[in-house]
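=== RUN LOG ===
request id: a7f3
mode: sequence -> structure
chains: 1
length: 101
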Amino acid sequence: MAAYSNYALRVPASLMEDLRVAAESDGVSMNGFIIQAVAEKVAALRTRGRLQDLSESDQSAYLDARAARARPGIMADILAEAGTTNEVLPGDEVPEGWLHG
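=== RESULT ===
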């Protein structure tokens, strides 16, 4: 079992409400949501720092090794369930002037 530490976190009321809603919509506790968010941020920072310390060829090898662990079949399954259509649904329209600035 993992060892845990406690840290008193002071969160502004407006952010706390957003946190509550986000955690609820994800179906997790606020504690679980915060732990996941912190883990994602630490992983991103660790990866960025690790890559900065490597040569270009070592960066490529590191990213290739990460890519080799990917499970592309899962994404293919998700995309297959998304369906395919060229139909523009209400709300999907490109705003007027968006493409011609």
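=== NOTES ===
The chain is about 60% helix and 0% strand.
The radius of gyration is 21 Å.
=== END ===
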